[in-house]
Design a protein that fits this description.
Blueprint: E1 7-14, H1 30-45, H2 50-55, E2 58-59, E3 62-69, E4 78-87, E5 92-100, E6 106-114, E7 117-118, H3 130-136
Keywords: Hydrolase
Pfam family, one: 4HBT_2
Family: Belongs to the 4-hydroxybenzoyl-CoA thioesterase family.
Length: 145
């Protein structure tokens, strides 16, 4: 059974020199940064960035991260990070695909899971706050399950 995708978002990044090793390929740890850049762009697009989360009384730590490297990204390469929001009610789960912008060739697949944690008492929320649900439903590509 295919996952339901609540919404999609994409961002393009040009691989900077300081992200590559001596062989001019992206060091594996920088892929996490690319996921964060894409996630922040998505959150900004719905008006619910990390500052807004805090104003609503929550932090959203990443509790799970998965990466599968398919082909290395290289210095100067333009890559597109496509994200798909696949869970919004009990957590924020996003699937990512990093591709070469020009050819569309897949470079990396990834996923992150974040949970809402109350800033007041530090307790994990087992249902996402209504402020989050209202914000994500504002995304231009939002589709109900």
């Amino acid at each position: 059974m295919a996952k339901h995708i609540y919404c999609r978002h994409s961002i393009e990044i040009e691989v900077p020199f300081f992200d590559v090793d001596a062989m001019h390929i992206v060091w594996h740890g920088h892929y996490v940064k690319y996921l964060e850049v894409a996630r922040c762009a998505f959150l900004s697009s719905i008006g619910y960035d990390y500052n807004e989360m805090g104003k609503n009384g929550y932090s959203w730590p990443v509790v799970q991260l998965n990466l599968k490297y398919v082909k290395p990204a290289r210095f100067g390469q333009k890559i597109r990070v496509d994200l798909a929001v696949v869970e919004i009610e009990s957590c924020l789960r996003i699937d990512y695909t990093l591709v070469d912008s020009e050819s569309g060739q897949k470079l990396t697949k990834a996923s992150t899971t974040q949970v809402a944690v109350s800033l007041e008492n530090g307790e994990m929320q087992f249902q996402t706050p209504s402020s989050w649900l209202e914000a994500v439903k504002r995304h231009r590509s939002f589709q109900t399950a």
